[in-house]
């Protein structure tokens, strides 16, 4: 005897209202703190005065009401949870229901503190129980009750919904913008990102508590920071700061996150080779945006690495001017991390430390036993409140450390005398992409109490600095520029050097195409036309990567506005 005849999740409508339709219109993906619609058709009438439908949602292997990973609620709206229950769900019968014919239109409300993840919804009616649906719950920057609430819609569009961005690299007086395809709404990204959470060390140590803690963006962002790098088991990207990239690709090869995350997932979680700071940050930004935590990539120029936690970068010299090898401190020409937007009630109840938090997935120093960093409040960093968690002293030193020069005596006592302290060099031109445009925004004043300034200069990546005065690529797009209609992308590349280029290849980010090309003689050019069919509307970036025997990973991009 079948009680539940039909279940309609209204995935298309629900996902559109929850700003997840870019992810899927067939699989239900909702955001916590916001109700969604569900229609049940029973095989018999439902008597509102006597009958009760009991619904249960669970997530994780060990669901518990006390941990917020299980919730029971009745229809019509009756409380079934225990007094100690956390993250309580509820459901209401919507007008338009026809209980006398067994049609129940329900409005189900996940609480704003529900753990994110994959859920199973089941229902029980007159001793008959059925699993109704599997669905996903994400953070909700549109809900004022969620810790990741971001008030301005234009910022939500940029920091959650935008799949393209810019990562700034370079050094000295030269800042180079590099286009990056975050691709957070590409096929399978929900499963990839949630699987990443299930592979973290804390889950294996205590899966029940780990899943319960996913109610907090503070906890989740810290887990993601550790999982992006491969320094601890199961991480996504393996770092490589040398010159041997055998067994993988050099960090400059990558121009987007999806290819990396897809390779990691499809290889059963083998770390992808290789990345450096901007690759780690780009991939983490994609994961954070997919999960619903507003996120942006931030570049710090003249970035300090303080290994001994004394908030200075120490340089030691002997009487002959030779540098001693005593200190492992260093200053990098640039370093890239991400900022995630969230409340920090763990630091102050008045919201003093809410807002942007530094989270750094590049493996530098261990934090609580793992290679992760943050979230560190940008407000705390600016105020020098280095006693606050997480990792505020380390990030403070990255942007504000003094570079101290010491003279080491050649006498047996090895005494040290301070020669000079440079308070200006570290932490310059801290940069991110502007909201709604491809301009650079300087964030230096949000990190420290002094201004920095530099005019952004256009380029196409570290590999082509010596080509800075030449336009190597010409990109044009022709055709309909409408969703599901063919358009043609034409790329023209000119050989700028006095030797023949061999082993030429070109790849297009997002298309999965790798195109082999013939040798190119000096001052000659090739023209390649590729037919593409866009399947998403809005402003999209077409990213091109060119390599040959003489130089690697020359990048260019073209912005295309795809109409419905």
From TrEMBL:
Residues 269-363 form the Transglutaminase-like domain. One of its GO terms (biological process) is nervous system development. GO terms for molecular function: GTP binding; metal ion binding; peptidase activity; protein-glutamine gamma-glutamyltransferase activity; protein-glutamine glutaminase activity. Its main location: membrane. The keyword Transcription does not apply. Its cofactor is Ca(2+). It catalyses: L-glutaminyl-[protein] + serotonin = 5-serotonyl-L-glutamyl-[protein] + NH4(+); L-glutaminyl-[protein] + (R)-noradrenaline = 5-(R)-noradrenalinyl-L-glutamyl-[protein] + NH4(+); L-glutaminyl-[protein] + H2O = L-glutamyl-[protein] + NH4(+); L-glutaminyl-[protein] + dopamine = 5-dopaminyl-L-glutamyl-[protein] + NH4(+). Belongs to the transglutaminase superfamily. Transglutaminase family. PANTHER family: PROTEIN-GLUTAMINE GAMMA-GLUTAMYLTRANSFERASE, PROTEIN-GLUTAMINE GAMMA-GLUTAMYLTRANSFERASE 2. This is Protein-glutamine gamma-glutamyltransferase 2. It comes from Poecilia reticulata (Guppy).
